[in-house]
Amino acid sequence: MDKNTKKLSIYKSFSNSEKYSIKWSNYFQVYEKILSNYRNKKIKFVEIGVANGGSLFMWRKYFGKKAKIIGIDLNPNAKKLEKNGFKIYIGNQSDRKFWDHFYKKEGKVDIILDDGGHKNLQQISTVHYSLPYIKDGGKIIVEDTGTSYVKKEFNNPSKYSFINYAKNVVDNIHRRSPLLKKELSFYSKKIFLVEFFESIVVFSIDSKKCFENKEVANKAHNEWAIDYRHNDYFGNLKSKLDRKYGLLNKRSFFRKIIRKIFYRNFIFNLLDNIKIKKIFRDLNN
User: Fold this and answer.
1) Rounded CA gap, 198 and 66, in Å?
2) Rounded to the nearest 5 degrees, what angle is found at the Cα of 9, between the Cα atoms of 6 and 13?
3) pTM
């Protein structure tokens, strides 16, 4: 454990917890980054997978007395933690009926942290069924996402791993781009930001910020901006063709060919992809 981590208030809350708890060392830096703004505020915080309650005590120390700390676990013995002032629900995070019951009782929450079973269905179900019930400005945090790469027990890597699901969420929120010309989905209307850390994925929820994107320009005069993106390949050749075959370029058939080759970037993309493949190979080595 490095010295800077030990100085963090979240680590002090962890190390001074009344019950046993275990966390990965890099989590504390992430916690401090994504959760510090919620301290000493009236929030409703939910943790899935509470074991004997060590992390619940940590969260209560960290967030302060105004926070309501709720635990979810499969083990009925976790109910004993209610004598310490926590609200505990016993249930299966993969079960939609459990989530319907939970949110019917609790209403909307600010933060839900998944430290449960770490299997694909469990992690994905938590996000999918909780998304409608997270307040604007809240978060869904999924821990131990490294299991998306573990074969034994978790049957990954897989097309249906949690990380692939999270990548699909990233694809989905790009529906807000007018370049895609797609209708907004429930995900793109709710999730403003997705953050990937080693073994943690964070979804920031804010429907007010999830508007369809639009291009805007300021009032200054555009004096010299020219698109030079493709000049490194065929910019000069295209200029020569324009000068030499300018009249032919006015004819629809010839114009279509020129656009196919140059304006639609067929050759550019082909050459780009050769270079990109080399970078991808380096990335995956």
Assistant:
1) 30
2) 90
3) 0.84
* Closest to 68 measured CA to CA, from 48, 43, 49: 43
Which amino acid, residue 178? Answer: P
The first and second tokens of residue 284, run together, are: 């995956």
Strands of the chain, DSSP E:
44-48, 68-73, 87-90, 109-114, 134-143, 191-197, 200-205
Residue whose C-alpha is closest to residue 161's, from 202, 122, 196, 116: 122
Q: What are the pLDDT digits (tens) for 215-257? A: 888 888 777 666 666 555 555 555 555 555 555 555 566 666 6
pLDDT at 13: 87
Task: Please tell me the distance from the alpha carbon of residue 77 to that of residue 254, in angstroms, as a whole number.
Answer: 77
For residue 57, count CB atoms less than 10 angstroms from its CB and return exposed for 0-12, middle for 13-18, buried for 19 or more.
buried
Higher local confidence (pLDDT), 81 or 244: 81
DSSP string of 32-88, one letter each residue:
HHHHGGGTTS--EEEEE--TTSHHHHHHHHHH-TT-EEEEEES-GGGGGGGGGT-EE
With contact defined as beta carbons under 8 Å apart, do 201 and 27 qualify? no
